[in-house]
Model the fold of this input.
Amino acid sequence: MRPDRFRHFAAIDWSGAAGERHAGIAVAICTQGQAAPDLVRPAHRWSRAEVLDWLRHDLPADTLVGMDLGISLAFADRGAFLPGWDGSPPDARTLWAVVDAICADDAHLGVSSFVDHPAIAPHFRRHGGREGAQFGGGRGRFRVTERAQEAMGCKPYSNFNLVGAAQVGKSSLSGMRVLHRLSGHIPVWPVDPLPSHGPAICEIYTTIAAMAAGRTANRSKIRDGGELDLALAKLDSRPFGHAGAIDDHRSDAIVTAAWLRRAAPDSALWRPAGLTREIARTEGWTFGAR
Done:
């Protein structure tokens, strides 16, 4: 498959927060060329269900979609996602199905039922000082791709962490519900091979895009229109043209869409050294992590 065959590039800044609609969700898209990405429904407060509907019904053909979430949990470090539980899934797609099934009654694609499950809860760090015996201590368990992010100078967080501003657990788990519901509609790299035509989804980490745009890992967030245009220029994009303050969810989506456009044709990014067949089917990978 030629990775330069994509014609559109979309980035989704995601949220696993409680409730229906979230200021933390933003969607940006751009075409080939140098035009600045556009925000999709820029004045809209998205729900997760609406993003799912947009992906299923309104996504342009041949779009590469980056979703800012972890598409799986750590597996390689212990040979299982949830060691000690007989129901621990054997691969990422089964994990998505299990999360969605356990959370079938959770509104708004929430995941409380999964992290509250008595056999699963011990694997997570939760609010109120509740650190499960299987969390792993310290910063928790990491996937191979997250170790690759660390080697690039990023500071990833464990998908088993549900505490604080840096928690990515519920964001990733709610995203897994979306990925499961897209089964048969959009392939998810590298769990699925890149298709020869049509759309594909990949995991993104917006800090990688920001670093490619001249930011540092510690200063990856952009909250000013002028700084946004400077970052876009580093990515061979025309300016977005926003004056004054901009929230970092929207700027993350805009910058990452422009970065995907520039990065996608780089065949080496689709073949990172640590991405084995076993890692692809269990843990997945973050596009751009080397």
Q: What stands out?
A: The beta strands are 8-13, 26-31, 38-39, 63-68, 125-126, 130-131, 188-189, 200-203. Residues 224 and 245 are 5 Å apart (CA to CA). The two ends are 20 Å apart (CA to CA).
